[in-house]
């Protein structure tokens, strides 16, 4: 994330709303997540609350997305929500594998999880949930989309982005480029517990009619369910279902 000191008010508001996500956050957490001064974050949150865009829990003091955003989102959903056509695919993936299945879309330089279907296996990974965002190159969905962007575009993104500050040295430019190369070889991406230790994920890209990656299917679970023997089988299944979604979108 670039430093927002010179950003417009609208850009700062966007940062604040994204920082709240689905779980909400304290004023201090919003300030840290957006790299805004705490007084600025508090002022923006207070102004947004006056308009109904955020709401504050009177007990915990945490800020949450507000009712006005729900109304606006409902109005925008018919135009932008692409998740309904993926839900049967997610259910099929979860049933066949026992793992939790997810559908994430590309928004700017991030992936946003729009839909999920829990698997039947009792031990689950809880890294992903609806509404969570990750930068490209982080988690299997963000890695597989980045790997299938035009090479010069992916290189420009990595040259301009430092993922290590938040995500650690496993997300250095060199490490991400190695995983991109492996992803391009296999077709699907593997996240070997790099976001949360022991939580593995696989992702396959979904393409639009021009061949550009616009979204991704992913499976997540514990390491014991993603051993070296099973990963190729899960990867082929993901690629097959991602191809199905790509055809539906054309």
From TrEMBL:
One of its GO terms (molecular function) is DNA-binding transcription factor activity. Residues 7-67 form the HTH iclR-type domain. GO terms for biological process: negative regulation of DNA-templated transcription. Residues 68-250 form the IclR-ED domain. The keyword Cell wall biogenesis/degradation does not apply. Keywords: DNA-binding, Transcription, Transcription regulation. Gene3D superfamilies: 3.30.450.40, Winged helix-like DNA-binding domain superfamily/Winged helix DNA-binding domain. This is Transcriptional regulator, IclR family.
């Amino acid at each position: 994330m670039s430093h927002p000191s010179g950003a417009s008010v609208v850009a700062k508001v966007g940062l604040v709303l994204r920082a709240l996500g689905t779980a909400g956050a304290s004023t201090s957490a919003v300030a840290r997540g957006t790299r805004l001064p705490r007084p600025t974050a508090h002022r923006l949150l207070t102004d947004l609350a006056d308009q109904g865009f955020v709401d504050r829990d009177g007990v915990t003091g945490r800020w949450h997305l507000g009712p006005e955003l729900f109304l606006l989102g409902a109005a925008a959903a018919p135009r932008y929500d692409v998740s309904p056509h993926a839900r049967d695919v997610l259910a099929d993936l979860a049933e066949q594998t026992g793992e939790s299945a997810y559908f994430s879309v590309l928004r700017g330089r991030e992936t946003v999880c729009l839909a999920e279907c829990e698997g039947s296996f009792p031990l689950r990974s809880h890294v992903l949930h609806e509404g969570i965002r990750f930068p490209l190159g982080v988690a299997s969905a963000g890695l597989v989309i980045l790997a299938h962007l035009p090479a010069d575009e992916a290189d420009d993104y990595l040259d301009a982005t430092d993922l290590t500050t938040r995500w650690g040295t496993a997300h250095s430019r060199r490490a991400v480029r190695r995983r991109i190369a492996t992803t391009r070889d296999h077709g699907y991406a593997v996240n070997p517990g790099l976001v949360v230790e022991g939580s593995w994920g696989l992702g396959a890209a979904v393409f639009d009619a021009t061949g550009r990656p616009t979204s991704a299917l992913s499976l997540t679970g514990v390491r014991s369910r993603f051993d070296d023997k099973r990963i190729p089988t899960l990867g082929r299944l993901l690629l097959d279902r991602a191809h199905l979604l790509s055809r539906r979108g054309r």
